[in-house]
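pasting input
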Amino acid sequence: MNTNNKPASRKLLGFLGNNAVPIMFILIIVICLPMSGFSTTFLLNEIVTRLSRNAFLILSLLIPIMAGMGLNFGMTLGAMAAEIALIFTSDWQIWGIPGIVLAMIMSIPISAVLGLVCGKLLNAAKGREMITSYIISFFMNGVYQLVVLYMMGSIIPIIHNNIKLPRGYGVRASVDLTRIRKSLDNVLAVNIAGVKIPVMTLLIIAAMCLIIVWFRRTKLGQDMRAVGQDMEVARASGIDVERTRIISIVISTVLAGLGMVIYLQNMGDMATYSSHSQIGMFCIAALLVGGASVDRASIGNVFLGVILFHTMFILAPRAGAVITGNEVIGEYFRVFVSYGVITVALVMYETKKRRAKAGMGAQLEAAQREEEGR
Amino acid sequence: MSEYVRENERTLADRVRHTLKNFGLPRLIIAAFLLLMFIVAPFTGVNFWGQITNVLNRFSWNAVLVLAMVPMVHSGCGLNFGLPVGIIAGLLGATLSIEWGFAGPLSFVMAIVIATPFALIFGVAYGWLLNKIKGGEMMIATYVGFSVVSFFCMMWLVLPYKKPDMAWGFEGTGLRTTFPVDKYYGGVLSNFLRIDLGRLVIPTGALLFFALLAVMIWAFLHTKTGTAMTAVGSNPTFARAAGINVDRIRMLSVVMSTWLAAVGILVYEQGFGFVQLYNAPFNMALPAVSAILIGGATANKASITNVIIGTILFQGMVTMTPTVMNGLINLDISEVLRVVVSNGMILYALTRRTEATR
């Protein structure tokens, strides 16, 4: 009862506690910003570019979180599907918008199959979905290498020699996407005060946000939330839990595939064997930086996260160079921060889960008290 | 009479089936694959005894790192994906021992001595964290490991190491990514009591060192505390009811695992001949995890036998496939095979229904 006397400070503390990670990031950025010496135009340009490049990929993480399956480290599978699709479209020399659209269409069935496998495996590992999806991404990376490095060109036909390795089979370490580079970003692009805004890409991202908002209200979306809340209760109310979970992973993987095509058309160059390897980690870190947690994430978290995380990404090497005279240290710093953020988020989620499990009664009491206080 | 025989046969068949089931299909495939490799090897012009030497050597480098899984699995903390935490302690020991001017075999002993307090501190912190998040150990361990490794990426650059063998020459700041230890403890165990049979070379010292640690762990698991650890791992509620301090036992197991990992990386370095800093420890947890799983361990049960069998099978696969495959079809898919098999093995362990929930 005592605590109710000062609700304002308690609210503030609660707000700080809930948003510790974004606030920490804002502080890092505020400190690094003057040191880096970047111009506002440059920074804005970079942020808009990175927002349009990454936002779609990060949106793909939202649906499994809704279904209570945690952070989908298996989104890498979608990225691999997109890369396979792009290898084919570049081999067939279909460039520009048609190339992008074709790559997106081709990535969908591959992502769907991979997502199905991933979903089935995750159903066999309930309660440890995250570590399992993490290992799946490693496992599939091996399979991806087997396909791309040994089967392409020998079993799967690859026509052009600039994609094949000199030995006659396998794909080169880098696939040149110069001719589809930014072809999506350049559609309807507007230049405002030196800042280039890729309107079309942003429109696609906005459309995806609307679809996710709509999806949450559909029957399937409601089912997913029910499954995320409590699997047993959902099962008792007649929801096919396993199927719902698989669908959520399939959707996530397909979206990740589409997002990866957007990402790579912006980059204009594809590192065949490494483009996908870090993508999951950076997307997850960005989402968490935006204030999301393992069991709760919103579209707002995605955008705040992309902006904060990538501003830090741009600033850290320069700030590191100014502080220690060594640019490499800034690069290590941003990797450390990415891993650190994920660790903190996971720890917070697990402690919360344990506390919830241990003190269900106490929590109920507290909630009641809060109700009365209001 | 004939009926009796049939009955007997059936039980025998059942027994075989039971053994196979216990042994596990993936393990059987890997063992059969390795056996096939050894049979095929002489026909491809590969030096058979040279291969055996390779497998023995790699076993001696890696076995202690795999052994570091055992205590944590026993206490129910799951597979130690946070192995890099201990590895970092070992690397601190190695670099400080060299920095402070120890040389020869003494530098190895000192590396272990210096690494020990770090391993204890890291282990206590890591164990404290894992006690806070029971049930989610493996995922968090992975990321704790990554965070520590990436933090030390910065530290290797910043810490004032001066020894020219390790530090970057020009600026004098920061350690090199890789540097040889032949002037210090390179081969210090492998060359000790080494048996050289011409084509077959046995690194006796390193094998003995592993045996010593393995016996120590085995003996520990049979003490009162060790039995308590197993009890905590198999049923924490029961263990608590029996008056065991679950958190303390778990903490002890994490400290032991961390220390073993620290020693493990030093043993690895003395065999391999180089210290690898910066990003190298990132990739060291998964091979060790899959090795012990291949050896027959599960996420909550592991024995010394699992360690030995697993390391032999895993390292055998890693060393044999490239040479044999190259000799056979001139195609080196060993790297891909290693990734698929090792992660497939972890996946298999994680998705087994019997262990799905704990």
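fyi The first helix of chain A runs from residue 7 to 18.
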